[in-house]
Amino acid sequence: MKKSLKEQVLEAENKWKRALADYENLVKRTQREKENFFKFANRRLLEKLLGVLDDLELCRKHLDDQGLNLGVEKFKELLESEGVKEIEVLGKNFDPQLMEAVEMTAGPKNKVVEVVAKGYLLNETILRPAKVKVGGPPAGGVDKKL
Question: Looking at the domain covering 42-145, what would its CATH class be?
Fold first, then answer.
């Protein structure tokens, strides 16, 4: 059976609309992927820089130097401008999504009692989990390494 001219035009129009919608979806998806690529392209470099920040903050604990303090604060501002944000964990309930428990020690049950290494988010995703000591009754009254 032959389709009428009207049916053929309607079919071609529907195909054209589907193709246009597919193309628009492709453009949107490509744009999202490009944005995500740029958001997370620096991830490896930022992870390395966190190690440097850890060392600088350790130095700051032992030295009372205004220049070092200023440098550390500028470093933190730079990281924040790139989407890096410190995860606040001290005194909070242990969250395995954001933290890694390295030791269980005396203190309030399931609360973070000490931060061993700070954790950070990059654009609201985990860049590095916080390494923490979690409160609870230690086995046999002795601190227990995990």
Answer: mainly beta
Q: At what angle do helices 43-62 and 66-81 cross, to 10 degrees?
A: 160
Give the full edge-to-edge strand order of the sheet including 125-128. 84-87, 119-122, 125-128
Reading phi first (left if > 0) and then psi (alpha if -120 to 50, else beta), residue 123 is in left
Q: Report d(CA 114, CA 90) in Å as an integer.
A: 6
Residue type at position 92: K
pLDDT of residue 139: 56
Q: Where are the domains of the chain?
A: 42-145
3-class DSSP state of 54: helix
What DSSP character marks residue 93?
B
| Confidence label for 25 from pLDDT (cuts 50, 70 and 90) | very high
Largest CA distance in the chain: 91
pTM above 0.85, yes or no: no
Place of tokens 């954790």: 119
Closest by CA position to 82, among listed 53, 61, 59: 53
Residue 3 has, within 13 A of its CA and on its CB side, a CA count of 8
Spatial CA neighbour of 117 closest among 75, 86, 146: 86
